[in-house]
Design a protein that fits this description.
mainly alpha; two-stranded antiparallel sheet; single chain; three-stranded antiparallel β-sheet
């Protein structure tokens, strides 16, 4: 992210003239505007495109959101969290899970921070929010899985649950005793470095570094997880935390659960069980006896025959481009020049507001199915009459209106614009224009029927109006279902 987005002590405020440098500073550092702009700039131009895609996919699994409160809408708070996902996208999953879990951003979002040990006399129980979601959504899901991602059934044919309410309560106690890192402010006064606030064990809100423990906050009694994993009595908060992460990491569900999530984000919504099993197998063992190697897992995922085969011979292959991917894909296809500012307005209208997931369950249900079918189609969970119109409006806005004008409050802004001239040079020969559209938008697999339709439509526009030919052809192509899906 832009270095300005990581400033944890900006002195600027919104209490200034809207044209002032201080107001611009506040926009960049006290909102997510610059972080979102950085996201889209990275998606368009960063040299590590696979890392960007994987980090975005992970952000839809290990969710935090600006919907929580103004803290989570502060640039450096969100940027620091997502840097964890960028840094560990190709690393060790246990390390990634640990860093996410101990981050003050996650602690704040799911109420793990300042989670005091239970006290029956005070009527206080440990907060269960994070304990529930780290199992339900981040690692193992709600039912036990076979290696191929299909559910394990009991004698009555019902899925076997992965955990019980007793497990949630035990894990909630494991995660007690953590507070914000030192360095925050209370009543305008900064804590001394390395110390806790003198009047209370809980540190004031601060998001630089990892959460720390506080005196007498952790439940040191013994705990039992999954009826078999014992946490010894007297164990420290740090030891309990590390044991919990390791226990979840070793759960046999993690491989197929993570494999299914990443395949559905990166390749196809309906992978075969064998494909899931192969990817989960690479997670379980990278070939050198190591578990949780993300790079090995991603290699298996992307180079699998099912991922590389011609989608035209598999009617269930592919997925609906979610709004962010639709926008970034078309912007890249048109080779726009963009600073990323307010690009988010387009996917936002389609139901995907970057870094503002409506809940910890992400933008759309992971198990959403096309109505009347058994086909998984998670991205269709936010596909409705309104968002379909928003997709068309985005394409029209970009193709016919040229994109986004420079943001007036930032003198250095360039907006988001594309150059029609190279396209106009092809407009005199419709087949050449369609070839270019096929190459840039479809990767060379445009169907013959669609090609013929586009050529016919282009020929219907007078040849002395090349700009109209180009815009009409691009508009039709980008609205086609073959482009709206990834196959």
């Amino acid at each position: 992210y832009d270095h300005l987005s990581l400033d944890d002590s900006p002195t600027c405020t919104f209490n200034s003239d809207h044209t002032s440098a201080e107001y611009r500073c506040a926009l960049k550092q006290l909102t997510l505007l610059q972080v979102q702009a950085d996201f889209f700039s990275n998606a368009l131009y960063a040299p590590d495109q696979l890392r960007q895609r994987v980090a975005w996919a992970l952000s839809q699994l290990l969710v935090v959101s600006g919907m929580k409160d103004p803290d989570m809408e502060t640039a450096h708070v969100m940027a620091r969290y997502h840097n964890i996902l960028f840094e560990d996208a190709f690393g060790d999953f246990e390390r990634l899970l640990y860093r996410v879990a101990i981050s003050p951003q996650m602690g704040h979002y799911l109420d793990a921070v300042n989670n005091d040990r239970p006290d029956a006399s005070a009527g206080r129980s440990a907060n269960e929010n994070f304990a529930r979601e780290i199992m339900q959504l981040f690692t193992i899901g709600t039912v036990e899985l076979k290696a191929d991602g299909s559910p394990i059934l009991d004698g009555s044919g019902q899925p076997v649950p992965t955990y019980t309410q007793t497990d949630i309560k035990a894990l909630a106690r494991v995660f007690t005793g953590w507070t914000y890192p030192p360095g925050g402010k209370r009543d305008g006064k900064a804590d001394k470095p390395g110390t806790h606030h003198s009047n209370f064990a809980h540190n004031p809100r601060h998001y630089v570094g990892e959460m720390v423990t506080y005196p007498n906050g952790h439940d040191t009694d013994g705990k039992l997880l999954f009826s078999s994993v014992a946490f010894a009595s007297g164990q420290s908060a740090q030891a309990d935390f590390a044991q919990a992460i390791h226990t979840l990491f070793l759960h046999p569900n993690v491989g197929p659960y993570l494999a299914l999530h990443l395949i559905r984000q990166l390749v196809t919504s309906n992978p075969s069980p064998a494909y899931v099993a192969r990817v989960a197998g690479a997670f379980n063992d990278n070939g050198q006896g190591k578990r949780g190697d993300m790079k090995a897992m991603l290699r298996a995922l992307l180079l699998d025959p099912e991922a590389r085969s011609d989608p035209r011979f598999n009617l269930q292959a592919g997925l609906l481009k979610e709004p962010v991917l639709l926008v970034t894909n078309l912007l890249r296809a048109l080779e726009v020049q963009s600073d990323g500012i307010y690009v988010d307005k387009w996917p936002r209208r389609m139901g995907q507001h970057v870094y503002y997931s409506p809940s910890v369950f992400n933008y759309y249900p992971a198990d959403y199915k096309l109505p009347g079918t058994s086909l998984a189609a998670p991205q269709f969970g936010i596909h409705n009459a309104n968002t379909v119109l928003a997709r068309e409006s985005f394409i029209y806005d970009l193709v016919y209106n040229g994109g986004l004008s420079p943001y007036s409050k930032f003198p250095e802004a360039i907006g988001t614009q594309w150059d029609i001239e190279p396209w106009k040079a092809l407009a005199a020969t419709p087949t050449q224009l369609v070839d270019r559209i096929d190459e840039r938008l479809f990767g060379g697999i445009m169907e013959t029927a669609m090609r013929d339709t586009l050529v016919e439509a282009i020929n219907a526009v007078p040849s002395n109006k090349p700009d109209k030919r180009v815009k009409m052809a691009l508009y039709l192509a980008a609205n086609a279902y073959l482009y709206q899906t990834s196959r």
